[in-house]
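Lecture 7 notes: from sequence to structure.

We start with a single chain of 256 residues. Read the sequence below before looking at the structure.
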Amino acid sequence: MPTSTATYLYCVVKAPRAPSLARVPAGLAGATAPAAHRVAPSLWLIAADVPLSIYASPELDSRLRDLDWVARAALAHEGVVEHFARSRAASVIPAKLFTMFSSIEKALADVAGRRTSLDRVMKRISGCEEWGIRITRQPAAAEAQPPKRASSGAAFLAGRKAARDAVVNARAEAASAAEQAFKRLARIARDATQRDKRQEPGTNPPILEAAFLVPVTARARFKAEAARCAKACANAGAELTLTGPWPAYNFIGTAS
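Now the structure, written as tokens:
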């Protein structure tokens, strides 16, 4: 008999005992409450049933074009993952958004079949949390401008060149400060990665975006260093924004 639901995977948790489900968020719209399923000793799969009327293709494909709907789903997914990541006794590997299986048995078999890679990732992220930085240029408040009434054509051209040189120098200074911030923060983290630069809408794309795998015991030191880096960036005409802590999304490789 055909089933009307699929098994939705939120995350895999390594913990000495079954993860607490007290006050766990509801999760995705239409889903049953998240539940913990034992894969092996100290390894648990956090999953729920979701209706195929919403999450099967082509129904899901059409909803993926609704960015607001996808954003709500992502926040709901993240809320469940963060609930379990807050436990210091647990290590959590988040699943990608909309990871589903036809049954809980298939989900358990898939996770059990990847025990070796999962154990390797768990060892890597154990005792850590993810932090991120985004560095952008500050709006140019007083870049060099050519004289409004140049005394000659030569003076006008010289003024134009001075303005261009000022912009180039300001950008170079901001980029250097961003790279220094990354290096200083990476020294505290267990691992760090920079996001590939990409074209983004708007006139002020980020100079640098990065994620850091930070030991929980180094959180205060990392945040203090980030504050110092933010000041250095500000002096160089850039703005550093710190986010976190998050589950280690950027450091789980292909485990999920």
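The longest strand covers residues 5-14. Keep this in mind for problem set 3.
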